[in-house]
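G.,

No rush on this.
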Amino acid sequence: MAKVRVTKTKSTIEKDERQKRTIKALGLNKIGSSNEIENTPAVAGMIRKVLHLVKVENI
């Protein structure tokens, strides 16, 4: 499977609790933190839900 690098670019303050939990599940904490994840259908769906808070790069 291909990998993607997900970087948190915006704050989750005043965001829905589901979005906060999705960001945590992607392994992101502070703004600027990034994580390399296998691009599975489940991960792609999670990224789609918080796309306005993250930056995604193909590796």
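When you get to it, here's the other one too:
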Amino acid sequence: MLTSDVIMAVSDHAKEDYPAECCGLVVGSGSIQKVHKCRNLQDELHRQDPETHPRTSREAFAIDRQEMERLIKEAAVNGEKVLAFYHSHIDCGAYFSAMDKEVQTVFGEPEFPDALHLVVAVYEGQVREIRGFLWNAEMQDFFALPAAWQ
């Protein structure tokens, strides 16, 4: 379970980055949890190659893999683990899309199968909903947690 401070920090990040999708990860152990805001590279990818990356940061996110790996290594050195990944959806609901699944899985499975995945719905700069999703290995898919998961 994530702390209320983490949920607030993720929510604030989503509002700050609007109208672009935000992205990041949460690491920690027990009640000590840290939010790491990551830079969304989607606009840069789109500018460099719009055919391969047709979506902008308003419709997609791309975390810098080197930044993410550095954060994960730092967490491991500090005895922490990846607790959650998060990103926002702009002016639409907090659902786990097919693209979200594709981004979060490698060879059909997530790299961190126990991590929570948060999707933040931001409409006109205001957070309307945050939903949590977990991996179900048996179903080979992510499923939404009940509304009271926080």
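The chain has one domain: 4-149. The two ends are 6 Å apart (CA to CA).

Enjoy the weekend,
O.
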